[in-house]
Amino acid sequence: MKLLSLITDLELGGTPTVVRELAIRLRRIGVDLEVACLAKWGPVADQLRNAGVTVTALEAGGPTDLKVVGRLIRLIRDQRFTTVFSFLVHANAMAAAASLRVPQVRWIQSIQTTQPWPRWHWIVQRVAQTAAEKIVVPSPSVARIAHDWAGVAGEKIMIIPNAIDLADWTDAQSTIAAGDPRPYPITFLGRLDPVKDVPTLVEAVAKLSPLVHLHIYGDGADRGRVQETIARFNAPVTMHGVATSPQAALSQSGLLVLPSLAEGFGLVLIEAMAAGVPVVGTDVPGIRDVIRQDQTGLLAKPADPISLAACIGRIVRDRELRLRLIETASADVRQRFTWDVVLPQYQELLGIAVAG
After folding, report:
1. Rounded to the nearest 5°, which phi and psi values hold at 27?
2. Whose CB among 15, 139, 196, 258 lies 3.0–4.6 Å from 289's, allowing a Cys bridge?
3. What is the rounded CA–CA span in Å between residue 53 and residue 227?
4. Helix or strand or coil: residue 233?
5. Residue 119: other Cβ atoms inside 10 A
6. 181 and 84 belong to one structural domain
7. Same domain, yes or no, for 173 and 150?
8. One domain, residues 150 and 128
9. Are residues 33 and 148 in the same domain?
């Protein structure tokens, strides 16, 4: 087998991180693989190259640049790939188009979101999935959405959760939650995209001032709206820009909050759990597959600053709760979300022998 992992872009984010970590680990066990992205070269491409993985940027001019299909076909033929594993709707669509010219290749796709909009994404995915032998999803929520919105047959879906390497977090353990600092530092770590609903988090933090201070790590299209909300509520917030190291950001955090309106999984949640940071998320598909209410974290109503503030305030004011959540969450990550647990599932999918 020669494997090509294809993704829309290699910018910093959850799915590019999954593609990077999976590629590195498959390469370690002897899989002949490369990674390609539809877009221009991104920072995760640098990380892959530094790890010894060959990367190709296909340099699409945008989501409607169909010339990238020809470049993808040439790459597959020139490098004689036997399996193409694509991630996210644009990559899935281009892979499906390429499959018409190179049908002898094995095609696998991954859907990583439960976001309902834009609806045309799901129309495209409904067509694209017909070219794939298997559809990989990170959570039961995405499995249901893939079936209902993209028409993927249940027997075609394989649930493989996202994962982390606990060794990456050995030196990044936060000690904040064991104390009672004031103001208490809480963190958002991710893209500033409307689906993340960071303005609602800012409003919730303003209701808790001066008990807490919010640190935002990330950038994106919603930055202006976030800044306007901070000014409107005079909220205690520091914006740090993009975090190149989630370990560094979380080591200084006492609480991670993910206020999204929709998620496929929420990789940052298990990163925080591994770093000894308690978590609050919204009770939406994807997040509720990761957080077990009142066991490994707390779930708030989506788009509800009062509910979110109540969950944050409960954790900040209750040290015993924080420590209990941290202990349970850490054990849950070890049981469900490490590469030791998850990689054999990818090996089964790809037909690679599992050691032992």
Report:
1. -65, -35
2. 139
3. 38
4. helix
5. 9
6. no
7. no
8. yes
9. yes
Q: Is 237 helix (H, G, I), strand (E, B) or coil?
A: strand
CA distance 240 to 67: 38
CA dihedral 18, 339, 326, 177 (to 10 degrees): -60
CA distance 13 to 20: 11
Residue 229 and residue 153 share a domain: no
What predicted TM-score, i.e. pTM, was given to this entire model? 0.93
In a domain, 56, yes or no: yes
Q: Pick the more confident residue, 355 or 82.
A: 82
On whether both 170 and 99 belong to a single domain, the answer is: no
The phi, psi pair for 304, rounded to 5°, reads -130, 95
Rounded to an integer, the average pLDDT of 25-32 is 96
At 96, which amino acid appears?
A
Instruction: Take residue 247 and report the two structure tokens written for it.
Output: 């370990």
Q: pLDDT by residue (tens digit) across 134-170? A: 999 999 999 999 999 999 999 999 999 999 999 999 8
106 pLDDT higher than 90: yes
Residue 117 sits in the same domain as residue 171: no
CATH number, domain with residue 198: 3.40.50.2000
Asked if omega into 103 is within 30° of 0 (cis), the reply is: no
37-83: per-residue pLDDT in tens?
999 999 999 999 999 999 999 999 888 889 999 999 999 999 999 99
CA distance 312 to 186: 9
Q: Cα–Cα distances in Å, from 29 out to 25, 142, 166? A: 7, 29, 19
Q: Name the residue among 249, 308, 279 with its Cα closest to residue 177.
A: 279
Beta-strand (E) ranges in the chain? 2-7, 32-37, 55-57, 83-87, 106-110, 134-137, 157-159, 184-189, 212-217, 237-241, 255-258, 279-282, 298-300
Residue 356 within any structural domain of the chain: no
Q: What's the total number of domains in the chain?
A: 2
Q: Which DSSP string do the residues of 285-333 spell out, in sequence order?
A: TTHHHH--BTTTBEEE-TT-HHHHHHHHHHHHH-HHHHHHHHHHHHHHH
Predicted pLDDT at 356: 56
Residue 177, φ and ψ in degrees, nearest 5: -65, -20
